[in-house]
Amino acid sequence: MSSVRVALAGLLLAASPAAFTQQTAGPVARPPQAPLQIPNPHYISIPMEIDVKAPADKVWARVGKFCDIGEWSNAPTGNTCKITSGKDGEFGTMRTVGTEVLVGKTQYSYTYAQAPREGTPFNLYHGTLDAEPLTATTTRLRYTIFLDNSMLADDAAREADIKARRTRFTTALQNMKILAEGGTMPAPVAPPAPTTPRPSAATPAAFLSPNPHYVSVPMETQVNAPVDKVWARIGKFCDIGEWGFPGCSIISGTDGDFGAVRTIGNEVLVGKTKYSYIYTQPLRTSGAYIMYHGTLEARALTPTTTLLLYTLLYDNSNLADDAARDADIARRRTQFTGLLQNMKILSEGGTLPPGAIRAPGRPTPAPPAK
Predict the structure, then answer these.
(1) How high is the pLDDT of residue 29?
(2) What is the DSSP letter of 265?
(3) Where are the beta strands (DSSP E) in the chain?
(4) 191 touches 315 (CB < 8 A)
(5) Residue 257 located in a structural domain
(6) Is 122 helix (H, G, I), strand (E, B) or coil?
(7) Does residue 72 lie in a domain region?
(8) Which of 42, 105, 291, 362 has the smallest CB count inside 10 Å?
């Protein structure tokens, strides 16, 4: 378990589109951001893993669909998972289990989150399931839970919560291993009946965004360098300060670890694999929250070439109409495609040209006089 306390893309994504309009005068003045809903979070991760005697392709095909949780959770009530929006395995897909949203994915992983509710502390809960090939015939399955447990009463409550989650998801990993190796899971065991009557569960509060419209903006570029070299050059959480916007520093945690927080947008690293990371932003007291997530992945194509993928996921239901939504997507795509090109240049050993990175709202440098 790791614990930490609490930005590029998020600063861009949370701000008004007007903040990115090229200016001919001075920088755009930004209104102050609302305070964080949880000003002193205590982020923790709960990593679990198990090795499987089967190749990664076979393992992921058997247990890696978003609603496969309905089978490997082995609940006494049976498989009740259903996709309520989107398509299983795609960014923005929603499932009935926890009303969870698929907010990030790579070739052999996905990360999910739960949306915030009205008047409720938002614990930034995320889960990441990852299948890493070890050999041609073996795979390591990892399940990592990430959340802020600062709202629990004391250390005893936090330790009990961690233990309960670890027990539940370790069992889930064991079930995945059985299925991926072609076995049959044991009959589900019903939990013991409570010795005292339980109070009726309260009706959950309404979601801050009751009718979300999740969109993903996928972008990619091919790099002429091996994946290890590419990721070492541009894959640290604050490398964004070199290929995106200057001034990034880690304000909590360790660069590359779950729960690391960077100055740009107060963004938090909530999911990762060997060659990818996923980040989001914490909720502020303004109450507006678009579930913005960014996923950066480096995928080996050959021993000497790599595919870099950058995907944005967010809820754009707050925008006025389809024209506004299309314009917003186009702006983000242009911005981040440029950043991918910067990463490509750096990964191939080049030097960025003047003006390749700049802070939002700063004027575009004038072309040199001829």
Answers:
(1) 58
(2) G
(3) 2-5, 42-52, 83-85, 94-95, 100-106, 109-114, 126-133, 139-148, 214-223, 250-252, 261-262, 268-273, 276-280, 293-302, 305-315
(4) no
(5) yes
(6) coil
(7) yes
(8) 362
The residue range of the domain holding 248 is 2-6+37-187+210-347
Phi, psi of 344 (to 5 degrees): -60, -45
| 320-to-15, 148, 325, 326 alpha-carbon distances in Å | 15, 33, 8, 11
- How much is the CA Rg of the chain, to the nearest whole Å? 22
Amino acid (one-letter) located at 110? Y
Mean pLDDT by 10 residues, the chain (370 residues): 41 37 44 90 98 98 97 87 96 96 97 96 97 98 98 97 96 97 88 64 87 97 98 98 94 96 96 98 92 98 98 97 98 96 98 82 43
Rounded distance, CA 191 to CA 206, Å? 29
Residue 253, classified by CB atoms within 10 Å of its CB into exposed (0-12), middle (13-18) or buried (19+), is buried
- Phi (first) and psi of residue 108, to 5 degrees: -130, 45
Residue type for 244, please?
Answer: G
Count of all residues that appear for the chain in the document: 370
Q: Which bin fits 256, alpha (ψ -120 to 50), beta or left (φ > 0)?
A: left
The count of domains in the chain is: 1
